[in-house]
Amino acid sequence: MTTADGPLPTPGGNGPPAPARPPDTLFQRPCPRPHAALRLVCLPHAGGGASVFRGWAEHLPPAVELVAVQLPGRENRVRERPFTSGAALVDAVRDALAREVRTPYVLFGHSLGGMLAYALTTAALPTTNPTGPSAPHPPPERLILASCRAPDAPPPRTASRTSSADGLAAELTALAGTPPEVMRNRRLLRMLEPMLRADLELARTWPWSRPVPLPVPLTTFDACDDAMAPPAAVTGWRRYARRGLRAHHLTGGHFALHEDSETFLSLLLRELTVPPARSAPAPARND
Question: How far is CA 216 from the centre of its chain?
Fold first, then answer.
């Protein structure tokens, strides 16, 4: 979990995000590579922000650009109301992807971020709009999920909507990796509570639509001591991976990818296949 620099907002209720915001705030590019052949779009865990991926950029090959997603309610967007509706969240991120992220790209999601990445990938399937023609959204080259249970796997026990501050703190320690200093800072926790509760509600109500098979290849990461997304729950993705599945197994818990980042990043890099450059069409001949 991360916090923002500068003054904190006053506590507020959950609801749709504030409508007025610059169109480019959803994506952060720590090391801009506008001419990259591939983009790695990363979605964070519950309570997390784009900063958790910032250090990855230096490990990527020059042909790959890191694009970290910054959702409302955290870090530099802490003043904005978070999403509490999975459908609304998917629509907003999907539209932004189409506008601002060039293809080809790979989607990566950790925990709640994986839930969103799956929803975005299946939302890329052509759908019939009753008021207009079909509007397909370009899918990623590959979907990569870390510590994310399959849609039909039983969810872990979660705190209720009416949990006390102590109950919320215990939940966040397990699910969101909230640092101890935040748990001890009651004022800070109160300020961040709307976003944290919103993320927990998104995780609690997932899947946000009827699960369907994936239209792209899938890679999964599980961890042997992960209580939130145990290996058996991650294995269930095989039922949805009709285009192929590669599975990696880590040691550690729900945040194994950060606990041993060197091992994780070495495996992640193997999953990033940079597509060959498209050659220009040969000029027409007039024989």
Answer: 17
